[in-house]
Each structure stands twice: as structure tokens, then as C-alpha cells.
Description:
mainly alpha, Ferritin, 5 helices
Amino acid sequence: MINEKLEKAFNDQINKEFYSxxxxxxxxxxxxxxxxxxxxxxxxxxxxxxxxxxMGMFDYVHQRxxxxxxxxxxxxxxxxxxxxxxFEEVLKHEEFVTSRINALMDVAEEVKDRAALSFLxxxxxxxxxxxSTVGDVLATLKLIKDDSKALLMLDKDLAARTxxxxxxx
Length: 169
Ligand code: OFO
């Protein structure tokens, strides 16, 4: 049976993961408005990944005999001044998520739940990958500046991203 404090911390993180899904869906809509279909595709995959992150924890809490209690999802920002500014926000958000996963692991450590720590290892590695992927797109956007031809080339690259359901834990 999962410790109550840890159950609450998992529930908080499930809410954050659903918020991530919602935020990236808002960004997907932003790129739809800009008619940049490769970016739209990139966010479509990102949205699916966030849902998988949330559901991985949702299933885990149940597997451990705990209860999931869903809370309201915060309204995300829905507009950005440029693709560059949008990706700056993506990186900031992923760094925030990393800090939350670390905090969740702190609770698992505090209540000496080694099984939960081992489960959360996957999320920690995933955050390293997420920050690196986002950092790459951000670095390219910084180089592009106002060059619309280069932006369209990046858009074409981002159209190639595909979703593979992760095996969590
Ligand atoms: Fe983007 O990693 Fe989950 O939130």
C-alpha cells in the first residue's frame, strides 16, 4: 500500500502532467494559427507524450493500492509573441517539471519507498531527454532569427517527429 503523503505527491504530479498536455495543446493551436504544420505535428507528439506520462503515474498509484483524485487543470497561456518565445516557455516548463519530479522523489525517499524511487527513475531520464530535445529546437530558432526560409526548413524537419508509446517504469 502506498504511503498517504506519497500518494498525495503523485496526485499533484498527475495534475502537472495533465497541465503539460493542456499547455502543449494550446501551443499546438498557436502553431495552427501560424500555419506551421511541422510545429503542429511536433506538439501533437508532445501532447501524446504528456498524456502517457500522466497515465503512467495514474496506473502506478492504482497498482500500489492508492487512490487517484483528479483536480482542476489550470488554464494555460494561449498566445506567444513568436515561435522562439514559445520554445523558451517550453524549456522553462520542462525545467519546472524536472524540479517537480525531483521533489516527488524526495518524498519517496523520505518515506523509504524504494519501489516508487525505481519507478520514478524512468521519469528522471525522460526529463533529461525532454530538456535536450527542446533545447535543440530552441538553439535552432535562435540561429534562425527572422529568416522565414530557415523557419520553413525547421518546420519541415519537425514534421518528421512520430509518437512511440513509451514503456514506463
Ligand atoms: Fe514534458 O515531461 Fe511530462 O510533464
